[in-house]
Amino acid sequence: MAAAAQALVLVEREDYWARITINRPRMRNAADIATWQSIGDEVAQLAQDPDLRVLFVTGAGDRAFLAGADLNEFPRILQSRESIQGYITAVSRACDQLEALDIPVIAEINGAAIGGGLELACACDYRIAVEGAKFGIPSAEVGLGLAYADVARLVALAGTARARELLIFGRSYDAAEALAAGLVNEVVPRKRLFARSKELAGSIAAKAPLSIRSAKKVLLSVVHARAADRAEAIESILAAWDSDEMRQRIDQRLKRR
Closest Cα partner for 93 from 168, 155, 35? Predict the structure, then answer.
């Protein structure tokens, strides 16, 4: 009897949070098209959970968050324009859905975030990196191009000068340099990674979910400057204001005066 195939993506669910773990540690979590599709599918599924308040994203093992593309499948992908488009769509879908999720997403960067790994991290709302993590997008070495939205997210975080360093000159950063560049929010010892992310999750869970949802939509509209995003963002602002939760929170604050 053949052994069951190892899941490419693991999902852990507890209380108000969930964690997606890219599960290819022997490949340093390099992602093939099936992995990207699995990430997109799991994010879409979690988006339907009304009780979820925070999502973590990380990689299995202690070597990599996601160390780029699995080049082993590229000879097959490069055989046709259709298969190339299918791969690009799978990567874009995973990153776009993660960015558009109504709840905050925290990247637990437990090692190298290279190529698609950095793209995935940029789609998250907050990035915590371990000491010793590495960052880069060696797309010019391989010859591939990045999706428009992925570049927009990179520029929004690090600015055009840093984006040019990464994309054109092939610069790589260590954790301290990534922090200085704005690519990550915090750098922590490895043993503190999960504890720190849960501390942040607890702080988020105490806040008004409609307000957070609105903030995410407005930020998405600002980053991508799309009319459809802007209309949805405006509606989310009104929904946050016109909510029982906001009324209750204002009432509680006034009573404490």
Answer: 35
